[in-house]
Amino acid sequence: MRARDWDRVASDYFTEVVSPLAAGLPRPLVHALDAVPDARRKTAADLGCGIGTLLPALAARFGRVLGIDFSPAMLARARANCRAGNVALHRADLADLRAFHGRVDVAITVNAVLTPDPDRLDRVFAELAATLRPSGVLLGIFPAMEAILYQGLLIHERERRRSTPERARAKTSAILEQAKYDFVHGTYREAETAQKFFYAFELEYRLRRAGFRHIRLGRVLYPWETVGGYESFPAEPPMWDWLVRATRPAASRAGLRPALRAVDASRPGRRRRRPRAARV
Ligand SMILES: C[S@@+](CC[C@H](N)C(=O)[O-])C[C@H]1O[C@@H](n2cnc3c(N)ncnc32)[C@H](O)[C@@H]1O
Predict the structure, then answer these.
(1) What digits encode the pLDDT tens for the residues 212-224?
(2) Which of 8, 62, 166, 232 has the highest CB neighbour count under 10 A?
(3) Measured in angstroms, how far is the CA atom of residue 8 from the centroid of ligand 1?
(4) pLDDT confidence of 37, banded at 50, 70, 90?
(5) pLDDT tens-digit series, residues 146-177
């Protein structure tokens, strides 16, 4: 989705978006934030901050907070949601965060890395790494492709009990909207827009290639009653997004090279001045 598509979603955000923040901060994210030492002396960035749901909690913990998004309407709501003095909002594309390179101790991104374009994805992951200071930490929530497959299994199991094998297969595909998913590339397409979902192995691969190390994956759960229009199976374990914790290695240039190379590739041989961040 482009920035202007997100602009249209901003006014009615929690109706339009299935969000892990709808019922407050998910516990695993709170634990990960609690585990950051000396947070008062650190800078956190919410990359793809949306309407700013996370910003007050970050402002209460960290010395400085950057909220970054490319949608003006999202940023306007974020500004209204969080007036804390240690929060600065900036309009920027996650595929080009040059103005913030090396400025962040803890980068948080919650379901904002959604582009289905693999080249753009490479740039975004490289930029997530590049914003971090050495030893900085990424805490990211990413839509899980496995959760869709899991839901497909539950739908199929139910339909098998109700009808013939052929009908059960056909109904499962229809209910899951299988034709809209590309399970190889991890995308969901509806009309003009497409969204990325991630397999666990893919996240590990992409993060490692972007230069991250100490990559840990956990789950943020979606209680069945919060998944809206989706099929619901309250007796079964819930669906989930991936929660990632990953570290940008301490100062070794070799360790940082993959992320930096991806960012530099578009401007061969030129010395870059640090661009000024547009503050909104
Ligand atoms: C699903 S919303 C999540 C918002 C927020 N993180 C939350 O969880 O409430 C995705 C947000 O990411 C932003 N976004 C998506 N792609 C982006 C990009 N390439 N650069 C900057 N922001 C982006 C959108 O504008 C939108 O505000």
Answers:
(1) 999 999 999 998 8
(2) 62
(3) 12
(4) very high
(5) 999 999 999 999 999 999 999 999 999 999 99
Write down the mean pLDDT value for the chain: 89
Ligand 1 centroid – CA 79 distance (Å) = 15
Domain locations in the chain as residue ranges: 3-143+198-230+238-263, 145-196
User: What is the percent of the chain where pLDDT is above 70?
Assistant: 88
Atom of ligand 1 nearest to the CA of 120: 19
Say how many Å lie between the CA of residue 113 and the centre of ligand 1.
7
Give CA angle at 117 (112, 120), nearest 5°: 70
Please answer whether residues 66 and 44 qualify as being in contact, where contact means their C-beta atoms are separated by less than 8 angstroms.
Answer: yes
111 CB within 6 A, ligand 1: yes
Task: Please count the other Cβ atoms lying within 10 Å of the Cβ belonging to residue 277.
Answer: 17
Q: Is the CB of 6 under 6 A from ligand 1?
A: yes
Which CATH superfamily includes the segment(s) 3-143+198-230+238-263?
Vaccinia Virus protein VP39 (3.40.50.150)
CB neighbours of residue 95 within 10 Å: 20
Q: Hey, which of 69, 79, 122 would you mutate to test ligand 1's pocket, going by the most ligand atoms within 8 Å of its Cβ? A: 69
CB 78 within 8 A of CB 102: no
Of 5, 48, 277, give the one whose Cα is nearest residue 143. 48
CB distance 94 to ligand 1 below 6 Å: yes
pLDDT for 165: 96
